[in-house]
Amino acid sequence: xxxxxxxxxxxxxxxxxxxxxxxxxxxxxxxxxxxxxxxxxxxxxxxxxxxxxxxxxxxxxxxxxxxxxxxxxxxxxxxxxxxxxxxxxxxxxxxxxxxxxxxxxxxxxxxxxxxxxxxxxxxxxxxxxxxxxxxxxxxxxxxxxxxxxxxxxxxxxxxxxxxxxxxxxxxxxxxxxxxxxxxxxxxxxxxxxxxxxxxxx
Length: 201
Fold this sequence. Notes:
Helices cover 32% and strands 22% of the residues. It contains five helices and six strands; from the N terminus they run αααβββααβββ. The longest helix is centred in the middle third of the chain and has 17 residues, at 117-133.
Protein backbone atom coordinates (compact mmCIF):
# COMPACT_ATOMS: atom_id res chain seq x y z
CA UNK A 1 0.00 0.00 0.00
CA UNK A 2 2.81 2.43 0.89
CA UNK A 3 4.55 1.87 -2.44
CA UNK A 4 1.27 2.49 -4.28
CA UNK A 5 0.77 5.77 -2.43
CA UNK A 6 4.31 6.87 -3.27
CA UNK A 7 3.83 6.03 -6.93
CA UNK A 8 0.52 7.92 -6.96
CA UNK A 9 2.12 11.01 -5.39
CA UNK A 10 4.98 10.91 -7.86
CA UNK A 11 2.65 10.44 -10.83
CA UNK A 12 0.51 13.36 -9.66
CA UNK A 13 3.59 15.54 -9.32
CA UNK A 14 4.81 14.68 -12.81
CA UNK A 15 1.47 14.92 -14.61
CA UNK A 16 -0.22 17.82 -12.80
CA UNK A 17 2.42 20.41 -13.65
CA UNK A 18 2.19 21.94 -10.15
CA UNK A 19 5.84 21.18 -9.50
CA UNK A 20 7.18 22.76 -12.68
CA UNK A 21 6.47 26.38 -11.73
CA UNK A 22 9.44 28.72 -12.37
CA UNK A 23 11.18 29.99 -9.26
CA UNK A 24 10.45 33.67 -8.59
CA UNK A 25 13.22 36.11 -7.73
CA UNK A 26 12.97 38.57 -4.84
CA UNK A 27 11.88 41.44 -7.07
CA UNK A 28 9.10 39.30 -8.50
CA UNK A 29 7.50 38.33 -5.19
CA UNK A 30 5.06 41.20 -5.49
CA UNK A 31 3.60 39.53 -8.56
CA UNK A 32 2.72 36.40 -6.59
CA UNK A 33 -0.41 38.04 -5.23
CA UNK A 34 -1.85 38.52 -8.69
CA UNK A 35 -0.34 35.37 -10.21
CA UNK A 36 -2.32 32.19 -10.74
CA UNK A 37 0.53 30.35 -9.03
CA UNK A 38 -0.50 29.40 -5.49
CA UNK A 39 2.96 28.58 -4.13
CA UNK A 40 6.61 28.67 -4.97
CA UNK A 41 7.86 25.28 -6.21
CA UNK A 42 11.41 24.09 -6.86
CA UNK A 43 10.51 20.85 -8.60
CA UNK A 44 10.31 17.26 -7.42
CA UNK A 45 13.23 16.20 -5.26
CA UNK A 46 15.34 13.24 -6.33
CA UNK A 47 14.69 11.40 -3.05
CA UNK A 48 11.05 11.02 -4.13
CA UNK A 49 12.18 9.02 -7.17
CA UNK A 50 14.59 7.02 -5.01
CA UNK A 51 11.83 6.21 -2.52
CA UNK A 52 9.53 4.94 -5.27
CA UNK A 53 12.23 2.75 -6.77
CA UNK A 54 13.34 1.35 -3.40
CA UNK A 55 9.72 0.65 -2.36
CA UNK A 56 9.08 -1.33 -5.53
CA UNK A 57 11.53 -4.00 -4.43
CA UNK A 58 14.25 -2.98 -6.85
CA UNK A 59 17.91 -3.50 -6.03
CA UNK A 60 18.45 0.26 -6.20
CA UNK A 61 18.28 1.39 -2.58
CA UNK A 62 19.47 4.42 -0.68
CA UNK A 63 22.95 3.12 0.03
CA UNK A 64 23.68 2.81 -3.69
CA UNK A 65 25.20 5.62 -5.70
CA UNK A 66 22.37 7.54 -7.30
CA UNK A 67 22.62 7.98 -11.05
CA UNK A 68 20.00 9.63 -13.26
CA UNK A 69 20.24 6.65 -15.62
CA UNK A 70 18.82 4.38 -12.91
CA UNK A 71 15.52 6.26 -13.04
CA UNK A 72 15.31 5.96 -16.82
CA UNK A 73 16.03 2.25 -16.74
CA UNK A 74 13.54 1.66 -13.94
CA UNK A 75 10.70 3.54 -15.62
CA UNK A 76 11.48 2.71 -19.25
CA UNK A 77 13.59 -0.42 -18.84
CA UNK A 78 12.00 -2.42 -21.65
CA UNK A 79 12.90 0.29 -24.13
CA UNK A 80 16.62 -0.01 -23.23
CA UNK A 81 16.89 -3.76 -22.59
CA UNK A 82 18.76 -5.96 -25.03
CA UNK A 83 20.43 -9.36 -25.04
CA UNK A 84 24.16 -10.13 -25.26
CA UNK A 85 25.66 -13.49 -26.12
CA UNK A 86 29.29 -14.45 -25.45
CA UNK A 87 30.58 -17.42 -27.45
CA UNK A 88 33.64 -19.13 -25.95
CA UNK A 89 35.34 -21.94 -27.86
CA UNK A 90 38.47 -23.89 -26.84
CA UNK A 91 40.84 -26.17 -28.72
CA UNK A 92 38.79 -29.21 -27.69
CA UNK A 93 36.07 -28.14 -30.10
CA UNK A 94 33.61 -27.51 -27.28
CA UNK A 95 31.67 -24.26 -27.29
CA UNK A 96 30.12 -22.44 -24.33
CA UNK A 97 27.48 -19.73 -24.60
CA UNK A 98 26.84 -17.11 -21.94
CA UNK A 99 23.67 -15.07 -22.40
CA UNK A 100 22.59 -12.08 -20.35
CA UNK A 101 20.31 -9.06 -20.43
CA UNK A 102 21.75 -5.56 -20.24
CA UNK A 103 20.72 -1.91 -20.55
CA UNK A 104 24.01 -0.25 -21.55
CA UNK A 105 26.40 -1.39 -24.26
CA UNK A 106 29.90 -0.70 -22.95
CA UNK A 107 32.45 -0.22 -25.72
CA UNK A 108 36.23 -0.02 -25.69
CA UNK A 109 37.76 2.69 -27.85
CA UNK A 110 40.42 1.25 -30.19
CA UNK A 111 42.87 4.14 -30.28
CA UNK A 112 44.84 2.52 -33.10
CA UNK A 113 41.79 3.20 -35.30
CA UNK A 114 42.05 6.97 -34.81
CA UNK A 115 41.63 8.98 -37.98
CA UNK A 116 43.94 11.83 -36.85
CA UNK A 117 47.13 9.88 -36.16
CA UNK A 118 49.44 12.55 -37.59
CA UNK A 119 47.91 15.23 -35.39
CA UNK A 120 48.25 12.95 -32.37
CA UNK A 121 51.90 12.27 -33.20
CA UNK A 122 52.63 16.00 -33.34
CA UNK A 123 50.69 16.57 -30.12
CA UNK A 124 52.64 13.93 -28.17
CA UNK A 125 55.88 15.47 -29.41
CA UNK A 126 54.73 18.92 -28.27
CA UNK A 127 53.59 17.48 -24.94
CA UNK A 128 57.01 15.93 -24.30
CA UNK A 129 58.71 19.23 -25.10
CA UNK A 130 56.40 21.16 -22.77
CA UNK A 131 56.99 18.70 -19.93
CA UNK A 132 60.75 18.94 -20.41
CA UNK A 133 60.50 22.74 -20.15
CA UNK A 134 58.19 22.52 -17.12
CA UNK A 135 55.34 24.20 -18.96
CA UNK A 136 51.65 23.28 -19.14
CA UNK A 137 49.64 22.68 -22.25
CA UNK A 138 46.86 25.10 -23.05
CA UNK A 139 43.39 23.88 -23.87
CA UNK A 140 43.80 24.86 -27.52
CA UNK A 141 46.94 22.72 -27.85
CA UNK A 142 45.38 19.47 -26.65
CA UNK A 143 44.55 17.01 -29.41
CA UNK A 144 42.27 14.07 -28.70
CA UNK A 145 41.97 10.94 -30.81
CA UNK A 146 39.00 10.80 -33.17
CA UNK A 147 37.81 7.20 -33.42
CA UNK A 148 34.77 6.35 -35.60
CA UNK A 149 31.85 4.69 -33.85
CA UNK A 150 31.96 1.94 -36.47
CA UNK A 151 35.44 0.99 -35.23
CA UNK A 152 34.20 0.77 -31.63
CA UNK A 153 31.32 -1.50 -32.63
CA UNK A 154 33.60 -3.68 -34.75
CA UNK A 155 36.00 -3.99 -31.81
CA UNK A 156 33.12 -5.17 -29.60
CA UNK A 157 32.28 -8.08 -31.88
CA UNK A 158 35.89 -8.93 -32.82
CA UNK A 159 37.59 -12.15 -31.74
CA UNK A 160 39.34 -12.00 -28.36
CA UNK A 161 41.89 -14.46 -26.99
CA UNK A 162 41.38 -15.47 -23.36
CA UNK A 163 44.49 -16.93 -21.78
CA UNK A 164 44.59 -19.31 -18.80
CA UNK A 165 40.98 -20.32 -19.31
CA UNK A 166 40.21 -23.59 -17.52
CA UNK A 167 38.55 -26.01 -19.92
CA UNK A 168 36.41 -28.68 -18.30
CA UNK A 169 36.74 -30.72 -21.50
CA UNK A 170 40.55 -30.71 -21.46
CA UNK A 171 40.85 -30.63 -17.65
CA UNK A 172 43.51 -27.95 -17.90
CA UNK A 173 44.06 -24.30 -18.67
CA UNK A 174 44.17 -23.28 -22.29
CA UNK A 175 43.69 -20.33 -24.62
CA UNK A 176 40.14 -19.86 -25.82
CA UNK A 177 38.51 -17.68 -28.44
CA UNK A 178 35.70 -15.36 -27.38
CA UNK A 179 33.27 -13.46 -29.56
CA UNK A 180 30.34 -11.28 -28.50
CA UNK A 181 27.15 -10.24 -30.22
CA UNK A 182 23.64 -8.98 -29.64
CA UNK A 183 20.73 -11.40 -29.53
CA UNK A 184 18.10 -8.63 -29.48
CA UNK A 185 18.05 -4.91 -30.14
CA UNK A 186 16.37 -2.24 -27.95
CA UNK A 187 14.21 0.67 -28.99
CA UNK A 188 16.95 3.00 -27.71
CA UNK A 189 20.56 1.85 -27.49
CA UNK A 190 22.60 3.51 -24.73
CA UNK A 191 26.35 3.44 -25.33
CA UNK A 192 29.02 3.74 -22.65
CA UNK A 193 32.42 4.63 -24.06
CA UNK A 194 35.36 3.45 -21.95
CA UNK A 195 37.63 6.45 -22.14
CA UNK A 196 40.25 5.39 -19.60
CA UNK A 197 43.75 5.31 -21.10
CA UNK A 198 46.99 4.01 -19.60
CA UNK A 199 50.04 5.89 -20.85
CA UNK A 200 53.72 5.34 -20.18
CA UNK A 201 55.08 7.63 -17.50
